[in-house]
Amino acid sequence: MMGNSGVFPAGRHAALCVILATLSAVAMACNSNYENAIKELCLDKFKQDMEALDQGHWCSWEDTVESYGELTNCTYLVALKMNCFWPNRLVDEFFIGVHQHYFHNCSPTGRLPHDPPNRILGPFIIVPVVVTLLMTALVVWRSKRSEGIV
Question: Could you state one GO cellular component term attached to this entry (predicted)?
Answer without folding.
Answer: plasma membrane
